[in-house]
Amino acid sequence: MEAEQVIEKILSDAKAEAEKITNEAKETVAAEQAKADAKLAEYRQQAAVLAQQAAEDEKSHILARARMNAAKEYLAEKSKILDEVFERAAQRLGELPDDEYRALMGRLMAEAVETGDEEVIIGKDEKRIDQSLVDEVNSKLQGDKKNLKLAADKRDLPGGFILRRGRIKTNVSPAVLLGQARTDLVIELAKTLFS
């Protein structure tokens, strides 16, 4: 073989080997690209799932906040209405005609009596609760419970009375009665709202 033929043979073999290496490299790159594309598609799918979950979580949080704010507004409005109702009730109690007021206080006094020897303390400006009402209540009491007395001292009460026996005092003023009624009503409303 001549030198030219040998060189040509070497070049031809080198080209074939270079082509083989190039093809293998292309196949390797294509395989790696396919793997990378598959991984990328998997990551995109995971990212979409995570984005969907994050969106649903955010939506749930927004709805929960909205529900909480609506419940707060609802309770605030109910509280405002309750304030108005109890304010009107207190006003109406104060405006009761004398005979109705005395009948109510007499009934409350009879219900509040425990031993019958309590003193009835009234407010400084109270004109409708007097000894005659206390005597009337005494006449309706049973057994030994007929010794109620009107106390000589008076207190700052907007209405109603306090029954005192020694150190024990029972406040039967409209403010206290309405406060108890309001507490009971609020408990009932809370049970209704949150059951």
Question: Can you give keywords for this protein?
Answer:
single chain, alpha+beta, 4 helices, hypothetical protein PF0899 fold, rod-shaped, 2 domains, 195 residues, 8% strand, 71% helix, 4-stranded mixed sheet
Short overview:
The chain has 195 residues and is an alpha+beta fold.
What does this structure look like?
With 195 residues, the protein is of the alpha+beta class. The chain folds into two domains: 1-95; 97-194, ATP synthase, E subunit, C-terminal (hypothetical protein PF0899 fold), CATH 3.30.2320. 71% of the residues lie in helices and 8% in strands. It has helices spanning 3-94, 98-112, 131-140, 174-194; strands at 119-122, 149-150, 161-165, 168-172. It has a four-stranded mixed beta sheet. A hairpin with a 2-residue loop joins strand 3 and strand 4. Helix 1 (3-94) runs antiparallel to helix 4 (174-194). It starts with a helix and ends with a helix. The mean pLDDT is 87.
How many helices in DSSP terms? 4
Q: Would you tell me which CATH topology of the largest domain applies?
A: hypothetical protein PF0899 fold
Largest sheet: 4 strands, mixed
Give the overall average pLDDT: 87
| CATH architecture classification name of the largest domain | 2-Layer Sandwich
User: Reading side by side through the largest sheet, how are the strands ordered?
Assistant: 2-1-3-4
State the oligomer: single chain
* Terminus-to-terminus distance: 104 Å
* SSE run: HHEHEEEH
Rg measurement, Å: 46 Å
Shape annotation: rod-shaped
Corresponding CATH superfamily of the largest domain: ATP synthase, E subunit, C-terminal
Taking pLDDT < 50 over at least 5 consecutive residues as the criterion, the unreliable ranges are none
Structural class: alpha+beta
Helix content: over 70%
Overall structural domain count: 2
Q: How many runs of DSSP E, i.e. beta strands?
A: 4
Strand content: 5-15%
Level-1 CATH class name of the largest domain: Alpha Beta
